[in-house]
Amino acid sequence: MQFDRLRLSGFKSFVDPTELVIRDGLTGVVGPNGCGKSNLLEALRWVMGESRPTAMRGEGMEDVIFAGTTRRPAKGQAEVTLALDNRARRAPVGFNDTDALEVTRRITREAGSAYRINGREVRARDVQMLFADASTGAQSPALVRQGQISELINARPKARRRVLEDAAGIGGLYQRRHEAELRLNGAEQNLSRVDDRLEQLA
Ligand code: ATP
Question: In this entry, which stretches build a coiled coil (predicted)?
Fold first, then answer.
């Protein structure tokens, strides 16, 4: 899916509402040290459902909210919206009837994160699956952070295979298999409990 625009408000150093247009092809972010280049990449990962604060260089997820400066007070919430071109209709069923998609994540202090797709409230999993199926998840190699190239060169073959699998768009299938296995284990445990009860009654 093509990314069209990224909107940030209260996210890390982007305290004021900011909108960036993302054009076709490779996008690079350049600027002086500390101007917020990595924060932009983190905003992209975050709106795609990143759940690890450490991947956002924080201790807790609320660390992504603008923390204030000597001149400006801290914010109470952060919001990031990613606008996507869905003319190729690659969005999952239920979200696939419009040419454009807007995925929004908002975090409010003490209240955690909430996600919306085209204004409709959804679960984190729905957003994570949407991007995993489109080969652009929060951990996608399409977003190249500092140090990632050398990590990749030194990676073990299994880790490299994971990169290829993500690029092929099958990351979502692994997640679904994992969830199916958990449900299967739950069902097996329930069945064995039923067997125990039946034995007690016999
Ligand atoms: P470099 O080129 O050195 O890697 P960069 O352009 O990637 O830098 P970032 O690391 O994205 O810059 O941004 C760092 C800036 O973001 C710092 O000034 C830091 O104070 C600010 N920052 C990070 N988190 C927050 C936050 N929660 N609230 C306010 N400012 C923040």
Answer: 177-202
